[in-house]
Design brief:
By secondary structure, this protein is of the alpha+beta class. The protein has 8 helices and 8 strands. It is elongated, with a radius of gyration of 20 Å.
Length: 199
């Protein structure tokens, strides 16, 4: 959707990546690797976004970030002082909701999902131990591929936990700290057939 507004899928994916890591600086090859786009396409969009004012460019020694004789690299960082930064962030975050809805629907279609909750990164609590809890029977290999694709679009990593109903009940009964940390934390419950309700 946003690529129609911004004119480029590469630009959207770069913006998402920078918005998820507002304090970090990235070099071109690193951004190409993280976004899975060609270096030339990434360079072109970095130039556009820098001219626009959304990004800042700085030449610094690679030794600032990593050891070794890597020489000078050109780094890019989000310009949080950019006059349209709040609006840009709000627009990207709203578009993320649509991305998440599509992602959740595809997870549900992967098998028999008895419980599905978004937590951690999805509710602005990145310190929690997982971002996605799935209880039921799903194809783990397909789920991993789906999450990998979603991470690429999102510009951020997603930690996930998959349990069968039996595993969940057992861990709950023995007072598993991990399970209770998720159940008691802030989250968005998408499916809950364990207690007979679904949103």
């Amino acid at each position: 959707m946003l690529e129609h507004l911004f004119g480029s899928k590469t630009r959207v994916r770069l913006l998402r990546l920078f918005l998820h890591h507002p304090e970090e600086a990235f070099f071109v090859r690193e951004l190409a690797r993280k976004t899975h786009f060609q270096m030339n396409a990434v360079r072109r969009e970095l130039e556009n976004l820098t001219k626009f004012g959304a990004l800042m460019e700085s030449k610094q020694l690679a030794a600032d970030r990593e050891k070794g004789p890597s020489g000078q690299r050109r780094y890019y960082k989000l310009n949080t002082d950019f006059v349209l930064y709040p609006e840009l962030r709000a627009l990207l975050m709203k578009s993320q909701v649509l991305l998440e809805q599509n992602f959740v629907k595809r997870v549900q279609d992967m098998g028999t999902v008895k419980y599905l909750a978004l937590t951690g990164r999805f509710v602005d609590m990145p310190d929690l131990s997982t971002d996605l809890l799935v209880i039921g029977k799903v194809n783990r290999e397909r789920l991993e591929r789906l999450i990998h694709d979603f991470e690429r679009e999102l510009g951020a990593s997603v930690r996930f936990t998959v349990l069968t109903g039996q595993e969940f009940q057992y861990r709950k009964q023995v007072g598993d700290k991990f399970i209770y940390s998720i159940l008691e934390a802030k989250k968005v419950v998408v499916v809950d057939e364990l207690t007979g309700s679904e949103t």
